Amino acid sequence: MPEPQTPDEAISQGGAGAPTDLAMEEGTSLEKNPGGPDGTGPAGKPRSLWSDAWRDLRRNPVFIISSLVILFLVIISIWPSLIASGDPLQADLADAQKGSEPGHPFGFDPQGRDVYTRVVYGTRTSVTVGVCATLGVALLGSVLGGLAGFFGGWWDAILSRLTDVFFGIPVVLGGLVFLSVVTSSTVWPVVGFIVLLGWPQIARIARGSVITAKQNDYVQAARALGASNSRMMLRHITPNAIAPVIVVATIALGTYISLEATLSFLGVGLKDPAVSWGIDISAAANYIRNAPHMLLWPAGALAVTVLAFIMLGDAVRDALDPKLR
Amino acid sequence: MGRYVIRRLLQMIPVFFGTTLLIFLMVNVMGDPIAGLCGDRQCDPATAAQLRSEFGLDKPVWQQYLTYMGNVFTGDFGTAFNGQKVTELMGTAFPITIRLTIVAVVFEVVIGISLGVVTGLRRGRPVDTTVLILTLIVIAVPTFVTGLLLQLLLGVKWGIIKPSVSADPTFDELLVPGLVLASVSLAYVTRLTRTSIAENARADYVRTAVAKGLPRRRVVVRHLLRNSLIPVVTFIGTDVGALMGGAIVTERIFNIHGVGYQLYQGILRQNSQTVVGFVTILVLVFLAANLIVDLLYAVLDPRIRYA
After folding, report:
1. pTM over the 0.95 mark
2. Which of A9, A143, A175, B225 is deepest in the core (most CB within 10 A)?
3. What is the rounded end-to-end Cα distance, in angstroms, of chain B?
4. From the centroid of its chain, how far is CA B25?
5. pLDDT higher than threshold 80 for residue A36
6. pLDDT mean across residues, chain B
7. CB of B267 within 8 Å of any CB in chain A?
8. B10–A contact, CB cutoff 8 A
9. CB atoms A176 and B263 under 8 Å
């Protein structure tokens, strides 16, 4: 029985003492007193990379601040009406370019729409693009790259050349070419484009990481014991090779949000009925001399969002890869 | 060395054709290459058919690509929408963008590496923390926002620079646009140099150099910096291609008539010849920069030899 349990642990784990929770708590109690008396596991069992990383993260103020900001962004992107009661599309030209006034803290945009409401509703676009594109890129990239690293051979050779091809295309340029023919005003063409051009980055990292993990003794042991390819991949390689992918994907999430805004700024990302910070900044850029507030608020929101994701990625990397510190 | 270069050149061939084919497909299959030729109106069917056969657009795509590539290798990049040769457009656009890229790379090297060395040697001190936070902010604020803000502050509010540059800008006109173009990469160079310096500062050869009484300056510049620069050089090398392609945003903000401007016009007017031509050159620049970076390794680190 892992008997010694501190009170705060019991609270955080919810059902303390329930038999089903014991297996789960094993990691936590070991972590609190490594090498301490423990009935179930071998004494002094080293912490796993993940529990070690989690312990570092909980103490890192950068991680706490950035995840709080991200949590806030996610909540208002799901329920924007929580903090903004207006309609982001409601326009009154009489209000165009007006500054801040009661009830409209950020003023109005060139069409007389409320900047505050549009900034709040724009969160949804940015977060959706960032999360969906990152999920797509991470899935496609790690599957293709991981298989290439695991099997090697001709598939690996083709994939490496293919990633070289995609790396040769400047991203903004590719976006202009690819998205200029799209007329839809939803986020999906942008997400599709980012996945199309983003996967090689993750594929390279996943490939390298899988090749490193493949050479480990425990994988050789599993092979010697007759484990199937799929079992080796899922049970032994994936958990040990996925850390770099997670780090790069988190940082990439921030840059994808920035990319969407850049493409919208150039007029090929999202198109006008959509609410996006990039569109608003682009529209405000023409009036920057007279009414800079129309540009500063969406630009500030964009910067804070991107910064939060990049800082989160940075913190996660520090925790997962202590060598870099 | 010679054999290595030849092998690398051979490896570049499939990448070159793959990338250009991809762009060619994007432009010619997804867009309609003749849509821009009748102005804002729709081409009438007879004219459209005639234009198609004139430009060989009724042939299968692979045949079009081969014809195009054949022309490219004889120096014929086709004709832009206004009857100008694409090579002429390149002749005016590339010098401007190259100037802009040089300014940007100089900023990256001078400011980025100096800040990286300073912070790498003083890790955990206030300088280090301040610079790290600054780099994070620079990375987080998209280039077009940085550009617009600098234009607003320096150009409009304080009148230090002209908000847009002349048709054939000189280096000093391009200082601020170059800084904007470099900004994100500058932050990455700083962080990369910092990590690399900090890692190598604990190396045995540095301790030896200090122990045998070399002045600190010499230890840092000759021993530490030279060994720490390899990842930084890799980054800057691959960044040259990205800078030239990414100049599209900066050139738009400061109204610079370089490669980005021509490409933007080409895309806006659906002129496939201009777009594919410029991208082909950019891809070549990118590949050449990568090759040069690999060869520079041997200069920086004599332990690396090419068979």
Report:
1. no
2. A175
3. 6
4. 22
5. no
6. 80
7. yes
8. no
9. yes
